Design the sequence.
């Protein structure tokens, strides 16, 4: 039986910390490159524990987490759990650190 994904009310909106709903410095750059490579992009970075955005193109759905390489960004426990659920269901999850190079590679693969 699948668990429902719900976000506790105390983690949404005014009570959410920057860490929970933050946006890495290269987030907007990653979205811009995704669109350059022809992906439809749905920005979801404000959902705690969820990926930063979802890319759709030609029948492919890719869940993307953006991390700043200079900050040594690692996935949080919630993000790691979400990544494992995506991959367990046959989905594709990517961690983007260098938007231009990473999105070019992903776009060639899909």
Sequence:
């Amino acid at each position: 039986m699948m668990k429902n994904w719900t976000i506790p009310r105390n983690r949404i909106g005014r009570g959410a910390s920057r860490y929970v709903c933050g946006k890495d410095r290269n987030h907007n750059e990653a979205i811009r490159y995704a669109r350059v490579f022809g992906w439809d992009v749905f920005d979801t970075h404000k959902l705690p524990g969820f990926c930063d955005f979802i890319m759709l193109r030609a029948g492919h759905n890719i869940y993307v987490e953006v991390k700043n390489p200079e900050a040594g960004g690692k996935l949080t426990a919630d993000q790691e759990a979400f990544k494992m659920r995506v991959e367990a269901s046959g989905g594709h999850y990517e961690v983007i650190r260098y938007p231009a190079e990473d999105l070019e590679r992903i776009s060639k693969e899909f």
The helical segments are 18-21, 27-36, 77-88, 99-109. Residues 23-109 form a domain with the Trna Endonuclease; Chain: A, domain 1 fold (CATH 3.40.1350.10). The chain has a mean pLDDT of 84.
